[in-house]
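WARN  no MSA supplied for this record, continuing single-sequence
INFO  ligand: D-gluconic acid
INFO  echoing inputs
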Amino acid sequence: MAGERFPADFVWGAATAAYQIEGAVREDGRGVSIWDTFSHTPGKIADGTTGDVACDSYHRYGEDIGLLNALGMNAYRFSIAWPRIVPLGAGPINQAGLDHYSRMVDALLGAGLQPFVTLYHWDLPQPLEDRLGWGSRATATVFAEYADIVVRQLGDRVTHWATLNEPWCSAMLGYYLGVHAPGHTDLKRGLEASHNLLLGHGLAVQAMRAAAPQPLQIGIVLNLTPTYPASDSPEDVAAARRFDGFVNRWFLDPLAGRGYPQDMLDYYGAAAPQANPEDLTQIAAPLDWLGVNYYERMRAVDAPDASLPQAQRLDDPDLPHTADREVYPEGLYDILLRLHNDYPFRPLYITQNGCALHDEIAEDGGIHDGQRQAFFEAHLAQLQRALAAGVPLKGYFAWSLLDNFEWAMGLSMRYGICYTNFETLERRIKDSGYWLRDFIAGQRG
Ligand code: GCO
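INFO  complex generated
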């Protein structure tokens, strides 16, 4: 690789999400989330699995911390399960849930790992969904209350916080495209959900700053997809612009204080959410950092018959493919440069980047995921290019620490740098994990 070093204070970590790894879904007073309901609904998860046990990290977080140490990382990005803290979504607080995360934070700090806490990685308490979920403004308000509760408990030790992880996925996969919990298929509901998520984010930022015993570094994590037209035709160019509006600008613009993009408001017409000016002010609450999750690009073809935004993805068959996506490392550079040039968010973190492969334990006991190593190498090289171009990048989190419950794909889609045996729950570092360890060590020199 290019030889340039990453900055000495660069944050190197791995990321996970509560429902994907914790299991222990009925333990210590945890309430039910929309993902419990969804994963137990026949036909929703490709391999019929659930997150009931997953990696059992609720009990085995000490082992997970051992893995992070063995990998030489200095940070861990994980999420807190709202239903463990406020089992009904609003109302009584479950102290046992808070105590769990408090112990975990102490263990991380004791092991020299900086916690990066995400407050919402998709596990909405089911009782809130029963009252319209993110379709309701009331959910934004109670999200800020939940954020306040957690910050009061952990804000003395945790400085780096993300409110939401990938609100596009919560809103659009959950309420419009129906492939994630809660599984609705209504564009208007999806757009309302996106607005209430953003509003909840803004309200939470203010509640967190007010509740914190020390200054916090608060950000939000977005899935951003660099989008390119598949041809020069005006139709494909317009499709790319729509898709960019759908996934990227719809979130970036209001967070940057620019309101929703006018072309998308026009395009959505009557389905567009009612956003009063005060909401937009709340949503634009100043941020301390932005997290970027990057997996793939979008090469857009105009597709009038496809669901909104009427754009279809055209992969390049000559590029490498993982178990579920095309590999396009240059897209990471492109999206970072665009953020740097067009938006005010500083600094930036890569909060997720990784790939799924059909990993198996070899006869020698190792997991030889050379393709994943190549994936990391190529993406880290793009980060070095971005740094050289002046992008204020402060950290990188591999997705994921462990093979885990990959949402609608279940347990069979393996994204870990550590292998999980879902029968014995044994973890084992894959070759790509060892490669990352050596790479990180090399950066520290
Ligand atoms: C996300 C998802 C992750 C997925 C990962 C791979 O935030 O993007 O929440 O949980 O596991 O993206 O698809």
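DSSP finds 15 helices and 13 strands in the chain.
INFO  checksum written, moving to next record
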